[in-house]
């Protein structure tokens, strides 16, 4: 065990954990932010997506010791009151079904828009291809990302 200083959503935490513990467990079990979900645990589904210094990463595959001094953002920190253009579009398009994958979808989409504010349809399809939705909401996710990208013009 070791005390590891990490920064999540502008707050600093120092959990006493195994340095090899996946970041996802620290976010959920030690910090108590449960918006980030566990899906596959092997980097294949995207449910656990958070931002690391603005880039989308799979928090189930990253040891917490690897994120010292880096800025982690979870779905709880994406906006102060749920008014990020993607969150607005998600509500207007009524995107989620069961909702389980959606935090990861939104975080992946937010990173995509940071890197490419006006993505083409192909850019969205490719950029979101690693995020799985067992409910099949892909079409509405695509439309919501398009709407959010236009709202940011
Ligand atoms: S839980 Fe991390 S990619 Fe599936
Ligand atoms: S909304 Fe159910 S898994 Fe995506």
TrEMBL record:
UniProt domain 2Fe-2S ferredoxin-type: residue ranges: 2-78
Keyword 4Fe-4S on entry: no
Superkingdom classification of source: Bacteria
Keywords assigned by UniProt, alphabetized: 2Fe-2S, Iron, Iron-sulfur, Metal-binding, Oxidoreductase
A Pfam family matched in the record: Fer2_2
Entry-linked Gene3D superfamilies: 3.10.20.30, [2Fe-2S]-binding domain (1.10.150.120)
Annotated GO MF terms: 2 iron, 2 sulfur cluster binding; metal ion binding; oxidoreductase activity
Listed name of the protein: (2Fe-2S)-binding protein
